Sequence to fold (372 residues):
Amino acid sequence: MDSPFTYNTYVTGTDFISRHQELDLFTNLVRQKQHILIYEPPKSGKHSLIQQGLIKLRQEGYSYTVCKINLFNVRTQKHLLYKVFDSLLDTFCSSPQEREEVIAEINSGIAGVFGDGEVKYETATDPIPDAIAEQILNMPEFMAKKYSTNPVIYLEEFQELLLLDDNYYVLKLLERILKSHTTSTYIITGSQVNAMKEIFEVQRFFYNFAERIKLGRIDKKSFTDFIIRSFLKAGRVVSKELADKTYELTDGHPWYTQQLGDISFLLTRGFLTDQILMQSFTSLIELHSYRFLTVTGRLSRFQINFLKAILDDAEKLSSAEVMQRYGFNSSANVNRLKEALQKKEILTQEKGKWEFLDPLFKTWLKNVYFEL
Fold:
């Protein structure tokens, strides 16, 4: 029997676990044409929440058209505009002839800006005239009117725009144009938490433009009930205690919990035992060890020591005692370490407290790297 645990794609329907408050907030915001901002670490359930929310809206009779634009490889303004332009045409036009008609209605000169064929981001550095850029960014409003629909523009990996040479200009342009839209709804997501904070909290672009939906941990009862049900579907049994332990070993992280559930399920023939669960957890750690080794292999001795200090719950990191214990040279050195580890998306700060963005990396660092 195939495993009931899913971790290699988004989940919806009966596989979507809890997060009912976030789901209700999402659907209410879309109905009200309010924009949404979600930034969480990779594999934390962003895409599943959005897909489940869109399914729920469709079931409830809300009419919309989704245009998904992934910015993961965008490095120039021209490539960004091409992606917006091409994605919107792909979403709304059903034939090459219809594409040409829509382009002619907007501005027949737009297509010529991109030349023949797909733009190559390595060479797409020549500027786009402001008037053309604005027409492209205003296309969602044009499509809303032409097709009598509610466009939902889903922008993934938005933090990549910080890597553009002219990122300030591009972000200000996007802010000005998107804030003027009244018929389109924007869902902006990012998987690099600190980079997204830089855009929306530090530099305060898009101020008051969107409401952030923060994904908390999936509650323990919902996840453990799901684990127990999933085993029962195949006539296998897991006790509540071991379901709880599965959740605790992965800190309730949806991707890792599903993976651990999958490994445990495949090793179980009747009853899941503690021995099988711990064997499965060891396999999970080994599965991700190379990735974690790559991370630590790129860290300096001082950065490693800083992570050790966080694991030790050291307070007042710039105090003389802490600096001496962990080999920090100065308070300025400590500040540089904080900035570096945030840029590497290893740590983030929430309400004044340092947190690891990847809970399994934290466990690996503690148990394997530092052998604590």
Observations:
- The CA atoms of residues 32 and 185 lie 9 Å apart.
- The chain is about 55% helix and 10% strand.
